[in-house]
Amino acid sequence: MIGAIDLSRVRRIWLRAPNWLGDFVMATAAFARVRAAFPGAHVTVGMRPYLRPLLSGTQLFDAVVDTPRAPGWRAFWRQVAEVRRGAYDLAIVLPNSLATGLVPFAAGVPLRLGYQQGRPWLMNLGRRAELRRRWYQRRRGPSRRPTPMPHYYDELLDVIGLPPGGVHPTLAVTAEEDQWVADHLRSLGIGDGERLLLLVVGANFGASKLWLPERFAAVARAMAAKHGLRPLVLVGPSEVELGERIAAEGGCIALSRPVLPLDKLKALVRRGALMVTGDTGPRHLAVAFDRPIVCLMGPNDPNYTNYCLEHTIVIRKDLECSPCQRKVCPLGHHRCMRDITVDEVVAAGERLLAAGAGGGGAGR
Fold this sequence. Notes:
The strands form 3 sheets. Strands 10-9-8-11-12-13 form a 6-stranded parallel β-sheet, with helices on both faces. It contains 12 helices and 13 strands. The longest helix has 17 residues, at 21-37. It has 2 domains: 7-158, Rossmann fold (3-Layer(aba) Sandwich); 175-354, 3-Layer(aba) Sandwich (Rossmann fold), CATH 3.40.50.2000. The two termini are 35 Å apart. It is an alpha/beta fold. Helix content is 35%, strand content 15%.
């Protein structure tokens, strides 16, 4: 019971998922917590279509509704109509945008849970004084206090008294996905037993998070020569040219034609022996499968992603200007990334391999 609300009577749930790859993966523990707390309820997730492949092999939801980015009132009212048809008892809204909170409000969902973030009149759970601390997320100046996202989502679910859950991401890989990746790698001349170095060279966030291409190439050459790893460059649709340039310089292969969809990407990541990446979405896929990660942390605040670090080494320069959370360096020098050296990255990777974390294989 929360006030006058009996959660045992909740039968249909609308859960609005985060829109970004990394945030979505970090939210999967919250998805699992909701699923466990409402085993008999029908749980529908609203999510960006490109993220759908991440759910393969899981039983987290009973239905999936695409919520593509589509500006304009017509698209908004289509989403409202979709949610209204679902006749949901409870809406759990993980993103903090006004639009994601407005949809279940306009659809008439009676119970709505989400951080207020400028929309307190849209969220009607958690208003009791003793729940105020969690409903109004702690702030530092104009912005919320940086909290690892799995804990951030966990605190929200605490408001309605759900049984405790974990923070480790919940993902799965199907046999078909594994087979596709094995066949694809063989077609590139990569054998089943080869240990893979996965280089994630791009960043959708912005140019401020990019490490120098020639340094990625140098890491590829060093880890191949010293440890026999087979380097692969992973790219998104907008990073093909960058990835192929790094692959050519590093004497390795860019998985750019085709760019791997997320179901195939997660299968590949699970097979990796070591990942070198910025603070990117694929980093969290590696966390989900307990793969070793060297993470190059530039302008972003590490406190948003400090979770499940048992197999991760974060390299970060403590500068006066960081973390700035800016997409483009306002000072023009990108020192937070430029000051990270090839030798540091190689040494971190070697420590992870020596610890026995980089054997490849199935992971979780």
